[in-house]
Each structure stands twice: as structure tokens, then as C-alpha cells.
Amino acid sequence: EQINKGNYEHYMQKEIHEQPESLKTTMRGRLIRGGSCKAKTVLLGGLKDHLKTIRRSRRIVFIGCGTSYNAALAARPILEELSGVPVTMEIASDLLDRQGPIYREDTAVFVSQSGETADTLLALEYALENGALCVGITNTVGSAIARHTHCGIHINAGCEIGVASTKAYTSQIVVMAMLALAIGGDTISNQARREAVIDGLFDLPNNVREVLKLDQEMKDLAKLLVAEQSLLVFGRGYNYATALEGALKVKEVALMHSEGILAGEMKHGPLALVDENLPIVVIATRDACFSKQQSVIQQLHARKGRLIVMCSKGDANAVCLGGSCRIIEVPQVEDCLQPVVNIIPLQLLAYHLTVLRGFNVDQPRNLAKSVTTQ
Ligand code: AGP
């Protein structure tokens, strides 16, 4: 059942729309919310013998490629916040090129949908040689990364066929949010935050179902952008990863140049590109960075930027002060889970752009689902 297209025209389309279900499967049996006096907690069976070691590590190093790297980047802030352990990021090929430092006291977390990506696998061998505790987060039971790591968490998103990773991405973020909760443990100081994140996880499938209703709106936006050469995506904080991942989807399947930009870097170069022609998506949903994003929008307006702003429901007036812009309104969720909701309109946009531009959705030219060579 998982490997036919059902009523959909393409696997990518089907996999985007099945995210409310794939997220539920990812969380099933792992999130516990008891009666009124029972604590809310997370159970990750595959890690139970290693949590103490992870908590005592010198640092947590996330290692992956492409979308899997972006998912780890999205989860990094909540990992840092709840675990109190420093978290660093490595693109697998770059770690290998540099032969970067990995220590025995490190926990190295390998994130991969297929579990077979050559660069990630070689980075795993390298981390094992250097004595780190190696944790695998994969979507493929029995894959090389699942077999060679010391312990791990299955993503359980179900089989993903489209070369463009969609449902695996959102499930990876959820797995890493649960990892943050598990490492954080049940200290009193972060109890309220932990419970809010758990409640947010329980509500996430419904919020994702809600945001999927933007399908037609994203198709209309795709019609508007179909002939463009380029699309910029500005994000920051939790949603810097959303900007990178949204741009990756657009370039990978719609074959349109697209770049995810850290909004805090805008004045250090990208601002020179802004004019009345280049379309720019700005992610400005509510979180601690909101007022900074309002100011970015004002500066882009001042340069007559052609803006498409993604904001929380009801915030259209708050983000579009003093200029015109197209709005994408999404449900507001717990800040660390907002990347799961925010990527979905961009997945839909990439999908519709690809269909309208007449390219192969599920098998983009030059790409393979699993990159098993270096
Ligand atoms: C995602 O849309 C891409 N196809 C690609 O970036 C992919 O995420 C990357 O090759 C890593 O694959 P993995 O998750 O199977 O290791």
C-alpha cells in the first residue's frame, strides 16, 4: 500500500500529503501523556542504555547530508536548550575533507533517511575509529548506518520513494525533538517547557493537516513564479533550516535556482540582490526572532523587494507594515516544532512549480534517491 501512488499523481505529492499520518507513526508508543498527576514523558527504547553517556558527552555532533543535515539543523536549538550539551553540525563530506576533530567523549549522531549514503557512512566509520559514541537516526531498518551505530532511533516515516525527501524530513525533526526531551530528562527547571513540547508534538499531526489545506494557494503561487529564474528564502533561528530546506526542494525538483539565506546575514551581501523583480520568501512566524524578522521585512520593502511572507495565522498586518506582500498564513505551534509546519507550504510550492515547469517530479535529472558513491 505504501509503495503505490493511491489517488495521487506522484509519489512526492502523496508523501507530502501523508505527513499527518507519518508523523503519528513516528511518535507512536514513544510519547507518554498520563492522567492529571502523571508526568508527560518520552520513551526511546533504542537509546535507553546510552542516555547517561550522551548526557555526559563533551558535545553532540550531528552529521548528515542534504535534507537530513537540514533536519538536524532545525532540531539543534531544542537539543541545546534541553540537553545543556554543546551541539555542533557537520556535513558528512566536509567532515571527511577536513578530517575534523571527533573525540572519544563525543556523541556523534548520524542522520540519514536511507541509512546508506556513502558520505555519511564513511563519516560513521571515521567517528567509530575515533572512539565516539555513534547514534543512528534512519528511516530504513537494517540499513548500513542502522547496523553500524552503537544505538539509534528509527524514524518510522514509512517508505519514501520520491527522490525529494519530504515526510522523512518532518519525521526526522520530530525524532530529534524527542531525542532532546529524552536527553533533557525530567529536571524541574525545564518541566514546563518539556511538557509544552510534548503537548505540541501531540497536536502536530492536526496542525500539519491544517497547513496542507494551503495546497491550492501554493499552486496559485507556483503559477505566479513558474517563469522565474531564481527564488530566495530568508529564515533565522528555528527556521534557518526551513529556508535551506525550502530552497533545496525548489532547486532539486523544480530545477529553479533557489537559495536559503540566514536573515541575520542579509546586510552582509544578499541585500545587493534585492530589487522589484526577484521573488523572496521571508519566514516570519512567531518566535523569539519575530521582531528581527519584522525589521528585515521593512528593510526589504525599502528596497522594493517582491515579498512573499510566511507568518502565523492572524499576523498578516503585523508582518506587512508599509509595503505590499503576498502572505502565507500557517498555524502557530510550539516554536521548536514550527519548522515541521513551515516546510510544508514550501514542499507544496516546489511540487507545483515542478509540475507546471514540466519536469520529472519523482526522479529529477542527475539525482538518485540514495547517494551510495562519493
Ligand atoms: C533530499 O531531498 C535529497 N534527495 C538529498 O539531499 C538527501 O537528503 C541526501 O542525499 C541525504 O540522503 P539520506 O537522508 O538518505 O542520507
Share in helix: 40-55%
Number of helices: 14
Described by its quaternary structure, the protein is single chain
Main sheet summary: 5 strands, parallel
Terminal-residue CA separation: 33 Å
User: Which small-molecule species are bound to the chains here?
Assistant: 2-deoxy-2-amino glucitol-6-phosphate
Instruction: Determine the structural class based on helices, strands and strand pairing.
Output: alpha/beta
H/E series, N to C?
A: HHEEHEHEHEHEHEHHHEHEEHEHEH
State which percent range the strand residues make up: 15-25%
Count of DSSP E strands? 12
As laid out across the biggest beta sheet, the strand order is 4-3-5-6-7
The overall average pLDDT, rounded, is: 95
Q: What is the C-alpha radius of gyration, as a whole number of Å?
A: 20 Å
Low-pLDDT parts are none
Domain SIS: 50-189, 221-364
Keywords: Aminotransferase, Glutamine amidotransferase, Repeat, Transferase
EC number: 2.6.1.16
Protein name: glutamine--fructose-6-phosphate transaminase (isomerizing)
